[in-house]
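Q: I'm writing up a methods section and want to include an example of the input and output format. Could you take the sequence below and give the corresponding predicted C-alpha cells, formatted cleanly so I can copy it straight into the document?
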Amino acid sequence: MTAQTPSDHDAEPGTAGLETLRDRKKHATRLALQAAALDLVATRGYAQVTVEEIAEAADVSPRTFFNYFSSKEAAVLGEDPEQVDELRASILARPADEPPFETVRAVLSERAASVARAVGGSGDTAAWLRRMKAVHAEPHLRVAHVARMAAFERVVAEAVAERTGADLETDLYPSLLAATAMASARVTLGLWARTGGTGSIADLVDRTFSLLGAGLARSAPEDPAREAPGPRPAHGGRRTTAKASRS
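A: Here is the clean output for your methods example:
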C-alpha cells in the first residue's frame, strides 16, 4: 500500500484545517501508516507485525515511521498528538454560557461523527472497526488504549475547569464530568464496534448522554441500544461563565 499524495486543489476528506500541500502530504502519510498497521494486524496478528513491515507497506522508511508514531501500538491506535489540542480547543470554543455537561456532550458527539471520516481519509468505518477489534483482542493494545483515554480525560477536566474557573485540586466537578463522559464514550464506541458499526455513531453518543442527563438511577429501558433520544436536560452542571455559580 502506498501513501496517497493529494493534489493542491483536491484535499482529501478530514483535511479541512490543513492549509498547505505539505500539511496534506504529511496527513496522507500518517493515514497510510495507520491503514497499513491495521491491515497487517488484522491479517497476521499484532505480535507478528513489525515496524519495518508497516513502513514498507506504506512505502516509507522506518525512520519516516518514527517521525509520525513512537511505536507500533501508536500506529495501530492512530495516535495523533494534535487530537489532544483539538479536543481542548473545541471545549473552550463552545458558547460561554453553555452548561458544562452540554459542552462536553456536544464536543464528543461532534468528534464521534468525524471519527469514521478521519480513519482512512475516506469515510471507511471498516478500518476503525478493525482498530477496535484489535484493541479488544490484544492485551497490550488495551493497556495503550486505556492510557490514551486517560490523557483525553485529563484534557477534558482541565478544559472544563478553565471554563468554569474551578480548581482541579479541590473541586470534584470537572474531573467527575470528564471521567463520566470519557467512560461513556468508551462504552458507547465499544457497543458500536460490536454491532458492526451500524447506524450513526454520533446519534449513539447522543443517546448515551441523554441517559446520563436523565439519571442512571431510573429503571433501565428494555432495549437501551434502540431507545429514542430523550430531551436534553435543561441544566447539566454549573453555568460556564468565568465565575459561574453552581447549579
